[in-house]
């Protein structure tokens, strides 16, 4: 009855006739959608119509059509909600399954190296070497701190993890060989007459100047003075160690002093504490 009253307000001259719209801009389903969504019926009058597109039907047929369309809309909405919920649940289960599969595929290995000195050399300055390994193999690599055992932990794809492990083992072996060669050279020098081991401390900013490009200056000093020089190592030591006859070592230190002065024009004060020599600005 309320619907009939509303229709009488819209079309007072045809209170008991109802209309079905066949124009492109408005159809019976459009009217049904508006009524189902509680739109103001007075706004329906703004729908464009033409006299030729209007036909008359009986009130009972019109109401049956409205209720039939309303039931269809409600049924469609419920089904859409059910389908959407089902889809969300299925997607969530698939994501959980994928995450679980990924965790199962993650492989983990540990690599022990000789000492913390090798850890520092493998990691590199500011972690540059270990960052390169991470990027190259797309693996997580945990580096031990100074207070931890020298053990690397690697996780990721199995093949890539094993490749990283081999890289670290190879680097550890390389540094071990260098250390062995170093010890051999040191033994050769300290077995000479009046052999000594002197540590030379200079300001950090001049270390690269003393080493020279590709170590050329240090290599020349070793050849000229028949001594062995161990250069500072990042995070290990900040001094040069000179092995060989004491007189030869003292001559090499004077050459280093003059070399820095020639390049920078800075005079250094020399302070000696037993076998430690400090060049101070």
TrEMBL record:
It comes from the Eukaryota. GO terms for biological process: regulation of gene expression. Keywords: RNA-binding. The keyword Transmembrane does not apply. PROSITE patterns: KH_TYPE_1 (PS50084). SMART domains: KH (SM00322). InterPro entries: KH_dom (IPR004087), KH_dom_type_1 (IPR004088), KH_dom_type_1_sf (IPR036612), MEX3 (IPR047227). GO terms for molecular function: RNA binding. Gene3D superfamilies: K Homology domain, type 1 (3.30.1370.10). Residues 105-173, 194-261 form the K Homology domain. PANTHER family: LD09246P1, RING FINGER AND KH DOMAIN CONTAINING PROTEIN 1. This is K y RNA-binding domain. It comes from Dermatophagoides farinae (American house dust mite).
